[in-house]
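Look over both lines:
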Amino acid sequence: MISQTSLEQIQSKREVWRAALATSGLVLWILCLVPPVAHWARQYEFVESIRFCLFAVSIPALLVAGAPWRWMGLASRANYIFNADGISEPGERSRWFDRLAVARLGRAGDRQAYFLVTLFCAAAVFWRTAPVVDAVVSHAWLAPIESLVLVGVGVLLWLDLIESPPMKPGATRPFRIGMSAVAMWAVWVMAYLGAMSNNSWYPAFVHVAGHGVSLAADQQLSTGFMWLLSAAAFLPVVFWNLMHWLQSEENPDDELNRMVRKERMFGAFNTKH
């Protein structure tokens, strides 16, 4: 048995790590919108591609993993208590994220997986089309709008991929694997198409022979960073869920136990509120 003190120490370490992740996401977000990164993104396609991946993938992943909802006043600051069955007791939680987290346990989340991954792909493709990228490069005020849209959509996607207390993923593990793979492939396909083009998709980036980064190098660096950043974010989710899904397949009672725990928690919350 793990003592209460040990549990508190583990919880404290988790909170520190989560705070570090959320802070890193916020810092990256700010750095992408101010000089010198903002200036470089208007000069080089690969810097703009890096910034796009940070907005769409990396920053949302860090924010959701960091779970800053308590800081933002969306979730209760009360510690979560688990009983002998491993069920989280709602206690006196009454914030919006707390109620939403418990309500999500009462319904299947696989259906919304289709919507979320479609929304992510649509937003990603839109902000990588030539007219839109050229507009962002030419008009600096569009970059904050791009970041808000991509980060917002990315947060919605990642809330269904990883745990972000008090929120738990609504989709089952097979759907999380599929969502991660489809989102990653969407970024990879856009990067691949850009790399295969003989001319740059984005006329706003001017390449002068013998000065700065060449057109070919700019495209190759853009493709490489888009592949790397998206893979670094989504592949761990794919393999983690695949590993746990295969392990759970060995015990047919795991799914039944999970459903019973959800039903008990949902019923306890409704009774107290």
In short: The chain has one domain: 4-272. Residues 80-90, 268-272 have pLDDT under 50 and may be disordered. The longest strand covers residues 81-82.
